[in-house]
Amino acid sequence: MYPQSLSPVQQVDFSLLLVFLFAAAVLTVLTAITCWFLWRYHHRRNPVASDIRGNLKAEIAWTLIPTLMVMGLFYYGWTGYKALRTVPEDAMPVNVTARTFSWTFTYANGKHSNYLAVPVDTPVRLNMRSMDVIHSLYIPAFRIKMDTVPGMQTYAWFSAARAGSYDIYCAEYCGVGHSKMLSTVKAMNKADFEAWLAEQSADTGPEAGFAFMDSQGCFSCHATDGSDAGSPPLHGLYGKKVTVLDGNKEKEVVADDAYLQESITDPGKLIVKGYDNTMPPYTEATPEQMESMLEYIRSIGSEGAGGSAGSHDHAGHGAPAQPAGMPDAGSGAEQGAGQKNTTRQGGQR
């Protein structure tokens, strides 16, 4: 079996197997030699200690053999590393944005999602950046673990051999919501992927706002059923009087469009009383995306908007409520994922 004939996943597994077998062989040999010395030089068999000096053959052997073994391990480790860092020229690019505490995946046609959809048997290049602190994209199934560093673009690549869902984790502690920074790779056949990629949501309106917020992982922190999931809930928020802290001063404000937009773009300015200042600023939304988010929040902002409050009670933390006629929340990150949406921590608002 030659390294050049292996995929990156097989390269890594092959290197790991070699290291394991080498370590097991060394342990076995050293244990056997130790036992033999204990038996051979027991004081009953060798009452007078022997003073052995100058065995040139033994010295050459125990220097040369381990050196060759270690260099062999280095070679296979290096070829595995090169396979992970050498991206095929025809790889499909996907931009990965990490922020506290969510992953966002953006495709060449501008579509974005909070889970990574890929076609099978197609190399995918992940161009990664962080909006705040160091995160680490970890996909165990594809042996990928690469840091995302503020002010620096990093990359990784993989190719899914078969359809299915594969876990994505953050492997770098990035704050109190680190454990929530979860997502999935959803590998599908090429026809299904092309159909998914071509799907276009509405540009404006509550449905577009719901889809955009779902893709950014907002709903895992901000519940939409009126419950408190550790961040200010969105249901019933619009038009409500909110007690906030402006520095050390406490005051009441109305949750209107201006307040909500400021809460998204500059969340540390006014902190909702009872919550921590943990939400990072979100300034990448276009005017259309911002307006659609506001429209969605308005649609669930009062009992008279989008139906009664009780009509949204089916949606819990991580399963956002929708205006009437809107697709089920499962069409977001949980579609085929089997786990909750990733999240952008939003403790302030």
Task: Report what the structure shows.
With 349 residues, this protein is an alpha+beta fold. The protein is 30% helix and 20% strand. The chain has helices at residues 8-40, 56-85, 190-198, 206-215, 257-265, 287-299, and strands at residues 92-99, 102-106, 112-113, 116-119, 123-130, 135-139, 144-148, 154-159, 164-170, 183-188, 241-246, 249-254, 271-272. It has a 5-stranded mixed β-sheet with strand order 3-2-1-5-8, covered by helices on one side. A 5-stranded mixed β-sheet has the order 4-10-9-6-7, with helices on one face. It has a 3-stranded antiparallel β-sheet with strand order 12-11-13, with no helix packed on it. Helix 1 (8-40) packs antiparallel against helix 2. The longest helix is centred in the N-terminal third of the chain and has 33 residues, at 8-40.
Query: Which percent bin holds the helix content?
Result: 25-40%
Proportion of residues in extended strands: 15-25%
The count of strands amounts to: 13
What is the terminal-to-terminal distance? Answer: 57 Å
Q: How large, in whole angstroms, is the Cα Rg?
A: 28 Å
The average pLDDT value, as a whole number, equals 79
Structural class: alpha+beta
Helix-strand pattern: HHEEEEEEEEEEHHEEHEH
**What general outline do the C-alpha atoms trace?**
elongated
User: Count of DSSP helices?
Assistant: 6
| Strands side by side in the biggest sheet | 3-2-1-5-8
Q: What's the story with the biggest beta sheet?
A: 5 strands, mixed
- The unreliable regions are 303-349
What are the SSEs and their pairings?
Elements: H1 8-40, H2 56-85, E1 92-99, E2 102-106, E3 112-113, E4 116-119, E5 123-130, E6 135-139, E7 144-148, E8 154-159, E9 164-170, E10 183-188, H3 190-198, H4 206-215, E11 241-246, E12 249-254, H5 257-265, E13 271-272, H6 287-299
Parallel strand pairs: 1-5, 4-10
Antiparallel strand pairs: 1-2, 2-3, 5-8, 6-7, 6-9, 9-10, 11-12, 11-13
Helix pairs in contact: 1-2, 4-6
